[in-house]
Write a structure and sequence with these properties.
It contains 2 helices and 12 strands; from the N terminus they run βββαβββαββββββ. The chain is mainly beta. The protein has one domain. The strands form 2 sheets. It has a 10-stranded antiparallel β-sheet. The protein has a two-stranded antiparallel ribbon with strand order 6-10. The longest helix is centred in the middle third of the chain and has 7 residues. The radius of gyration is 16 Å and the shape is globular.
Length: 152
């Protein structure tokens, strides 16, 4: 297998827009090219606004300090409340991943679907159940979770 045929953690030229939410409430918005669920650290190139405000070109981010990493469509976000899917639409898909409701230690809740929750892992990915959300997927840091409820 030559270099071009090998799978990689991140593909050069592909921008992953992310919002890193720290346990202390701090938020960093930007782009990452080296996030990995098994990595302890990754880098965020802050958005233009944060570059000028903070005077930084790139940040090393430690997963142990985070609550979650939101992979988003746009760094500007979406205004207004998000509408969760109805319970009937959740029940229609018999082969869907496990549906969960996460309560973080700060009281925030998040509903989504996951294939990979295991409490002994550093974290796990969740796909939001909300309609018209800006979030594509969310990496939840396990140590930031107070409770997880599941349903079919």
């Amino acid at each position: 297998m030559n270099q071009q045929d090998r799978p990689s953690q991140s593909i050069p030229g592909i921008q992953n827009f992310v919002v890193a939410r720290y346990r202390d409430g701090k938020i960093i918005k930007g782009v990452t090219h080296d996030f990995g669920a098994q990595k302890k650290m990754f880098h965020i190139i802050p958005s233009q606004q944060e570059k000028s405000e903070q005077g930084r070109k790139g940040l090393e981010v430690s997963l142990s300090e985070l609550k979650a990493v939101f992979f988003v469509k746009s760094l500007e976000g979406k205004e207004g409340p998000h509408l969760p899917e109805s319970a009937s639409s959740r029940e229609r898909d018999p082969v869907s991943p496990k549906k969960i409701k996460i309560t973080f230690f700060d009281g925030e809740t998040l509903e989504g679907a996951t294939h990979g929750y295991a409490p002994e892992r550093e974290g796990f990915f969740v796909v939001p159940l909300e309609k018209d959300t800006n979030n594509l997927r969310i990496f939840v840091v396990s140590k930031s979770v107070m409770t997880i409820e599941t349903w079919k």
